[in-house]
Specification:
Belongs to the MurCDEF family. MurE subfamily. It catalyses: UDP-N-acetyl-alpha-D-muramoyl-L-alanyl-D-glutamate + meso-2,6-diaminopimelate + ATP = UDP-N-acetyl-alpha-D-muramoyl-L-alanyl-gamma-D-glutamyl-meso-2,6-diaminopimelate + ADP + phosphate + H(+). Helix content is 33%, strand content 21%. The chain is an alpha/beta fold. The protein has 3 domains: 15-110, Udp-n-acetylmuramoylalanyl-d-glutamate--2,6- Diaminopimelate Ligase, Chain: A, domain 1; 115-339, UDP-N-acetylmuramoyl-L-alanine:D-glutamate ligase (3-Layer(aba) Sandwich), CATH 3.40.1190; 349-504, Mur ligase, C-terminal domain (Protein-Tyrosine Phosphatase, Chain A, Alpha-Beta Complex), CATH 3.90.190. Helix 14 (426-438) links the parallel strand 21 (413-416) and strand 22 (447-450). Helix 4 packs parallel to helix 6, helix 5 packs across helix 10 (311-326) and helix 13 (400-410) packs across helix 14 (426-438). The protein is globular, with a radius of gyration of 24 Å. Bound molecules: ligand UAG and adenosine-5'-triphosphate. Ligand UAG binds next to helix 7.
Length: 506
C-alpha cells in the first residue's frame, strides 16, 4: 500500500539545493536542483522533493532511494552509512551525521517557515494532551480559524485527517503548517509527545505557548528513566522550542519545571493552591461534567465548566483556559467556548442505548490514567463499577503489574483482556496483569476475570451491569483496530459495547 503522507501545500517557492547545503554547512553538490518539498518516507515522495533517507531502528531509508528517485525526488539527504546507496541513484546527495536531527529546520525553510504565521500552542505531559488540545481548540474556535494536530486526528478548519501518531514527523508537520497557513488557519493547537521532542519532530517550531499537564511513569521502553523522560518534556520549555510555559502546579514534576524552565512560566492549580497564578475554586463535580470558578492573577473571576467528568478534567479545562488567557483571549470567552465542547472522541465517551446504567469508553492505558479515571467514575456511579482493561504488547512492560493492581483495587469487577498484543502472546501479557492484581490484599480486591477475547470481555462486563452501575471499557478509546500478531483487525470498543448492550436489551 502506498503511504500517502500528509497533505501538501499547493504553492511553494523552490529552494535551490545549494542553499539547503549552505544551511547544513556541507559542501554544495554540483547540481542546480531546486527543492519544492521534503519527506522522510520513500512512499510519500512527490516530484521536486528532497528525500531524507534516515537510519532507523529497523530499516535504513537508503534502502528505498530507488523508489524515491522513481517518484522524482530531486536529491537525497542522508548519513554517511546511506551515502553510497543514495549516490548510486545518480541524484545529488547531502550527507550529515544526523539527518533526522537536521530535517526539521530544512523542512521549515523549504515550506517558508509556515509556523511563524500561526499562533502555536503545544501541549505535553503524560496524560491529558489530547483532551486539553480539544478544549483549547474549542475555546479558540469562536475567535480564530483553527488547526489541531494530535493522536486522534488532524484538523484543518473543518477538514479532518486521520493521524498516524501523536506528533507527526518534522517533514509532515511543516507541510501541514504550510497547508494550514494557505487555508487561512490562524492558530494551531498540537500535542507534543516526548518522542517528538527527542526525535526532532518539532525541530523548526518555536511554540508561542507550551502547556505541561503532568508526568508519571510511561514509555519506559523509550526513556531510560524518569529523569530522561522529564528532560525530554522540559525541552518544550526552553527558548529553542518555546516562548512561554503554562504549567500544572499540582503536579510534582510541574513544580520542578517551574524552577527549571528556560522560559517565563504561568502556573495553574485545579486544587486551588494559593501560590498558583490561576486557580480553580468552588469545584462541583457532577456525573458527566464539573463547574468551578477560575481566579486569575489580577483577581479575574471566570465561571467555568469542564464538559467532561472527573477532577482531572477540571485540571485539563483550567489548563486550556489559562493557555488561551495568556494568548490574549478574553478568559470568559475562552471558558464559554470550552464549556460548549461536545466531547472528545474516546475520552470518557458515553455509549447510550437507553440502558439503565452508565457505559463509557475511555483511552486510559497508563497506570496513572487508569487510576484517575476509575477514581472519577467511583465518585459518579450509583452502583458497582465493571471495568474491561488490557495492556499493549511490544510496549512498556513495567506497567502491566501496576495496571492489573489498580483495576483490581478500584473496580468491583475487573475484566482483564487483550489490547493490541502485537507480536506478544496475549496470555503472557495477561499473566503479568494478573500477577499485579494478585498482589492486592484479598479484602481490597474486586472480582477479577480474564478473557483473551476482547469482545467476550466486554460482553461479560455488560452482563454484570445492574441499574445504577457503571461499565467502563478502557484502553482503546477512539482506536478502531486491534493488532494481533501484526495484523490489525477492525475493532471499535464503542461499537462492540453498543452491540453487547443491545443484545441484553433483546
Ligand atoms: C521510536 C519511534 O518513534 N520510531 C519512529 C521512527 O522509526 P525508525 O527511525 O526506527 O524507522 P524505521 O522503521 O527503521 O525506518 C527507517 C526509515 O525508513 C523509512 N522508510 C521505511 C519503509 C519504506 O518503505 N520507506 C521508507 O522510506 C522510514 O520512513 C524511516 O524514516 O521513524 C518512523 C518513521 O517516521 C516512525 O514510524 C517510527 O514510529 C513508530 C512507528 C512508533 O510507534 N512510534 C511511537 C512509539 C511514537 O512515536 N509515539 C509517540 C508518543 C505517543 C504517546 O504519547 O503515547 C507519538 O508521537 O506518536
Ligand atoms: N490530566 C489528567 N490526569 C490524569 N489522567 C488523565 C488526565 N487527562 C486525561 N486523563 C486520562 O488519560 C486518558 C488519556 O487522556 P488523553 O488522551 O487526553 O491524554 P494523552 O496525554 O493524549 O494520552 P496519550 O499519550 O496516551 O495519547 C484519558 O482517557 C483519561 O482517562
Amino acid at each position: 500500500m502506498t503511504y500517502p503522507g500528509p497533505p501538501r501545500p499547493t504553492r511553494v517557492s523552490a529552494t535551490p539545493l545549494a542553499e539547503l547545503a549552505g544551511q547544513l554547512g556541507v559542501e554544495p553538490p554540483e547540481s542546480t536542483a531546486e527543492v519544492t518539498g521534503i519527506t522522510h518516507d520513500s512512499r510519500a515522495v512527490r516530484p521536486g522533493d528532497l528525500y531524507a533517507a534516515l537510519p532507523g531502528a529497523r530499516l535504513h531509508g537508503a534502502d528505498f532511494v530507488t523508489q524515491a528517485a522513481g517518484l522524482d525526488a530531486v536529491a537525497v539527504l542522508t548519513d554517511p552509512t546511506g551515502a553510497e546507496r543514495a549516490a548510486a541513484t545518480g541524484l545529488p546527495v547531502l550527507v550529515v551525521d544526523d539527518p533526522r536531527g537536521r530535517m526539521g529546520e530544512l523542512a521549515a525553510t523549504i515550506y517558508g517557515h509556515p509556523g511563524r504565521d500561526l499562533l502555536q500552542i503545544g501541549i505535553t505531559g503524560t496524560s491529558g494532551k489530547t483532551t486539553t488540545a480539544y478544549l483549547v481548540e474549542g475555546g479558540l474556535k469562536s475567535v480564530r480559524s483553527t488547526g489541531l494536530i494530535g493522536t486522534v486526528e488532524m484538523r484543518i478548519g473543518d477538514e479532518r485527517i486521520k493521524s498516524e501518531r501523536t506528533t507527526p514527523e518534522a517533514t509532515d508537520l511543516q507541510a501541514l503548517f504550510a497547508v494550514m497557513r494557505e487555508r487561512g488557519v490562524e492558530a494551531v493547537t498540537m500535542e507534543v509527545s516526548s518522542h517528538a521532542l527527542v526525535l526532532g519532530r518539532v525541530d523548526g517550531c518555536v511554540f508561542d505557548i507550551g502547556v505541561f499537564t503532568n508526568l508519571s511513569p510511561e514509555h519506559m521502553e523509550f526513556h531510560s528513566d524518569m529523569e530522561d523522560y522529564f528532560g525530554a518534556k522540559a525541552q518544550l520549555f526552553t527558548p529553542k522550542r518555546g516562548k512561554l510555559g503554562v504549567i500544572n502546579f499540582d503536579d510534582e514534576y510541574g513544580r520542578r519545571l517551574v524552577k527549571e524552565a528556560g522560559v517565563p512560566v504561568v502556573t495553574f492549580s485545579a486544587e486551588g493552591h494559593p501560590d498558583a497564578d490561576w486557580r480553580a475554586e468552588d469545584v462541583t463535580v457532577g456525573p458527566m461534567d464539573s463547574t468551578f470558578t477560575v481566579i486569575g492573577p489580577k483577581d479575574e473571576r471566570i465561571t467555568a465548566k469542564s464538559p467532561l467528568p472527573g477532577p482531572f478534567n477540571v485540571a485539563n479545562t483550567l489548563a486550556a483556559i489559562v493557555a488561551l488567557a495568556v494568548a490574549g483571549l478574553d478568559p470568559q470567552v475562552a471558558a464559554d467556548g470550552i464549556a460548549a465542547v461536545p466531547g472528545v472522541p474516546g475520552r470518557l465517551e458515553r455509549v447510550d442505548t437507553g440502558q439503565p446504567y452508565l457505559a463509557v469508553v475511555d483511552y486510559a492505558h497508563k497506570t496513572d490514567a487508569v487510576e484517575s479515571v476509575l477514581k472519577a467514575l467511583r465518585k459518579v456511579t450509583e452502583g458497582k463499577l465493571h471495568v474491561v482493561l488490557g495492556c499493549g504488547g511490544d510496549r512498556d512492560t513495567t506497567k502491566r503489574g501496576p495496571m492489573g493492581a489498580a483495576v483490581a483495587r478500584l473496580a468491583d469487577t475487573a475484566v482483564l483482556t487483550s489490547d493490541n498484543p502485537r507480536s506478544e502472546d496475549p496470555l503472557a501479557i495477561l499473566a503479568a496483569m494478573l500477577q499485579g492484581a494478585a498482589s492486592v490484599p484479598a479484602h481490597e480486591r474486586g472480582e477479577v476475570q480474564v478473557f483473551e477475547d476482547r469482545a467476550a470481555a466486554i460482553a461479560f462486563a455488560v452482563a454484570r451491569a445492574q441499574p445504577g452501575d457503571t461499565v467502563l471499557v478502557a484502553g482503546k478509546g477512539h482506536e478502531q483496530g486491534q493488532d494481533i500478531a501484526g495484523v490489525v483487525r477492525p475493532f471499535d470498543d464503542r461499537q462492540v459495547l453498543r452491540e453487547a448492550i443491545q443484545q441484553t436489551q433483546g
